[in-house]
Amino acid sequence: MATTPAAAGGAAILDTLGDFTSRENWDKFFALRGTGDSFEWYAEWEDLRSPLLSLLQGCGGGGGGGGGKGPEILVPGCGSSVLSEKLYDAGFRHITNVDFSRVLVADMLRRHARARPEMRWRVMDMTDMQFTDGSFDVILDKGGLDALMEPEAGTKLGMKYLNEAKRVLKSGGKFACLTLAESHVLALLLSEFRFGWDMSIQAIGNESSKKSAFQTFMVVMANDVIHSLEKENTIRESYSSGVDVTLSLRDLQLGAVGDLKVIIPGRRRMFILGDQGNSLYCYKAVLLDARKRTETFVYHCGVFIVPKVRAHEWLFASEEGQWHVVESAKAARLIMVFLDSRHANADMDVIKNDLSPLVKDLEPGNPEEEARIPFMMAGDGVKQREILQEVTSEITGPMVVEDVVYENSDEDQSSMTEKMFRRLIFKRNSGLVQSEALLVKDSTSDKADENNKKSPSASKKRRNQKKGSSGSKTVLRIDHSYLGSSYHSSIISGLSLIASALDSAAVAGTKVSTTVIGLGAGTLPMFLRGCLPFLDIKVVELDPLVEEVAKKYFGFSTDEQLQVHLGDGIKFIDDIAVANNGAISQQLMSNGNENNAVKILIVDVDSSDVRSGLSCPHANFVEDSFLLAVKKFLDEGGLFIINLVSRSSAVREMVVSRLKVAFEHLYSLHLEEDLNEVLFATPSERCLDVNNMDEAVAKLKAMLKFPVDVESDMKRLQKLQ
Questions:
Q1: Domain CATH number, residue 332
Q2: Residue 265 in contact with residue 291, Cβ under 8 Å?
Q3: Number of DSSP helices (H) and strands (E) in the chain, helices first
Q4: Strand ranges (DSSP E) for 547-675?
Q5: Closest of 484, 486, 322, 314 to residue 410, by C-alpha
Q6: Residues 6+ apart with CB under 8 A from 346
Q7: What is residue 62's three-state secondary structure?
Q8: 616: DSSP letter
Q9: What distances in angstroms separate CA 213 from CA 12, 42, 49, 69, one per listed residue?
Q10: Residue ranges under compositional bias (Basic and acidic residues) (predicted)?
Q11: Which of 593, 633, 634 is nearest to 511 (CA)?
Q12: Which residues, in sequence order, are CB contacts of 686 under 8 Å at separation 6+?
């Protein structure tokens, strides 16, 4: 109880109690008050009589002077209140009073043994009661929960008590809580009785007593079986119809998806596992009960851990793929746990130890065997790995270049078997695979090999040579016609929005100014150069070491069509925006375009500080000042493309709202399997091809020198403004 009645001697009483959860303090309190004295913390009987008698009528087959046996009533934390004796005198004879103070219970027995012989008194801790399940029709709590819920004590005792109350309450019973209804108490009641209970609340008048200045409320939780089943069926239907609801572990324990002790074939629920104070980490998880009952289950319950780098794969990200995993795991119930950036630096043994007590609560009933829940894990999908270089930059931090061969874990990717990829990894962002390029093997003749040996660059080339099974040597080179990232494909496809302007430039032999902020491994600029030869590309990269790595390991090269400017991307755009119509603008752009020509600006940079909620781009690239500079840079005739990655819907909405303010037109391509969302913005409709998108897609495809599935990408295009 967090507050006290304004009664005579109240201050001295509180000094005696101190901690409302201490048995010793209560014994001392009742001993000092003496025998034969009642004490009401909240409302008086005259105010409670009408609502309580109305509540109790009809419970447990009658009572209160009626013909029935009357309800079995439990009064936990009864104290010295006259509540029980008044109810007894009103005809409710089956009342059990519980308090953990022996002093109090002894006094109450002396007072009521003869006058009220059927009333029972028990010395018992209300958070650990020795009653069988389903013993009572009604539980009347008068300040007991409030006493356990002192803000400093947290919710642990309150939750334990409410679990006990629900356990000893009969099906169809009622839990009535007389409370001051403080926010932390109501929050616990609402959460613990969230599923399968009807709730009502009413204010109790205090006209008959001037002792207390505090308003008392009666909160009643009714376990209406029929109504609860209807609610549960509604919940089940909502899930089976694909409603996307993420629950907490506590929601599941409270029955949000039915009885967890029972395997329900085909049950699949997303939820959050773990919370602050009870575990080291939180985890996104899916509970899956096998769709078919079979005798071949190896595990009654198992845990399958999916690492971050594989979470986007069809096998783990799609419902159909998850059912494949359940069948392969041969588990009656599988709890699929997805790791993300929060777990990047955690040891796997620490993760398993953290999960063990959490998943124990999700284990279905298995009376025949108390087996330990096994942990299974998906690898990172890499079958073979060779690290070529690890280097640390003062700007970007640690970087890794590696060659990998992926496992063939996805039926849809069978063609990827034994293909080798080169990856650039930025470790500053949870091991982010910043770029990925396809390596192709070209067998060389002995003569070509001999020429390589004579060449001054022979030693460099030999680093990319491997001996084949026949003894011949192969040279590994980057296939610049391949897009390793699906969001890169979306960037290319989104150029359909300005296909007519691009087609006109190509026909006229005019170069289209294209600025890319963020080089990475250079795979996107190299693809653009080969795929759309009429683009005049300038890449702005802050870190010179990134350019060196791109040239050394990813075949990146510059020429008249593709240039690199080392410097800050925001300053680069600001400078051009300020001098957009002058000679400085012409010098910086170095392309000779007139101001009315179409321009393209692509921002593809990751953030070194994910605390902003943005993984990509850096928060500075979505500030109002930069967006205004972009608008001036485009000069009413271009397309601004930004790769957006954020787990926060609020952050995403903030970025979108800022873009809507700065630009007249805004479109989105969201990648279903990834967090990436590619946004396309333009200050005017002068260059847009939105009236006939099919024709625009066809125009773009005709211009592309490399294959891109433009049609599939553009089917996901959404107009945001």
A1: 3.40.50
A2: yes
A3: 25, 27
A4: 562-566, 599-603, 638-645, 665-670
A5: 314
A6: 280, 281
A7: coil
A8: B
A9: 18, 9, 19, 38
A10: 443-453
A11: 593
A12: 636, 637
pLDDT score recorded for residue 497: 94
Q: Check whether residue 219 and residue 258 sit in a common domain.
A: no
Integer Cα distance of 167 and 630 in angstroms? 63
Q: Is 689 helix (H, G, I), strand (E, B) or coil?
A: coil
Report the distance separating Cα 236 and Cα 230, nearest Å. 10
Q: What is the DSSP string of 387-442?
A: EEEEEEETTTEEEEEEEEEE----GGGGGGTT-EEEEEEEGGGTSEEEEEEEEEEE
Residue 333 neighbours by CB distance under 10 Å: 26
Which pTM value belongs to this model? 0.52
CATH number of the domain encompassing residue 50: 3.40.50.150
The Cα–Cα gap between 721 and 715 comes to 17
Rounded Cα gap, residues 103 and 398, in angstroms: 68
**Is the same domain home to 217 and 355?**
no
Q: Residues in the chain with pLDDT < 50?
A: 1-11, 13-14, 66, 226, 229, 235-244, 367, 409-417, 431, 444-448, 452-463, 468-471, 583-585, 587-588, 591-595
Pairwise CA distance, residues 236 & 239, whole Å: 5
Q: Which residues are registered as beta bridge partners of 222?
A: 174, 198
Q: Quick check: 224 and 174 in contact, CB under 8 A?
A: no
Q: Are residues 74 and 211 in the same domain?
A: yes
Return the residue matching tokens 């752009």. Answer: 589
What is d(CA 708, CA 600) in angstroms, rounded to the nearest whole number? 19
Task: Beginning with the edge strand found earlier in the chain, give each strand of the sheet holding 299-306 in spatial order.
Answer: 247-248, 268-273, 283-289, 331-338, 299-306, 375-377
**C-alpha–C-alpha distance, residues 569 and 602, integer Å:** 11
- The runs of H, that is alpha helices, within 193-307 are 225-240, 249-253
Question: What is the SS3 assignment for 178?
Answer: strand
- Kindly state whether residues 131 and 222 are assigned to the same domain: yes
3-state secondary structure of 520: coil
- H/E stretch holding 247: strand 247-248
The Cα–Cα gap between 400 and 132 comes to: 62
By the 8 A CB rule, do 110 and 99 touch? no
* Same domain, yes or no: 664 and 708: yes
Q: Is there a single domain that holds both residue 264 and residue 349?
A: yes
**How many structural domains is the chain composed of?**
3
Residues near 314 by beta carbon (within 8 Å), at least 6 away in sequence: 320, 321, 410, 412, 673
671 neighbors 486 (Cβ within 8 angstroms) = yes
CA–CA gap between residue 143 and residue 138 (Å, rounded): 16
What is the predicted pLDDT for the residue at 455? Answer: 47
Q: Which domain holds residue 134?
A: 21-55+69-226
> Is 438 within the bounds of a domain?
no
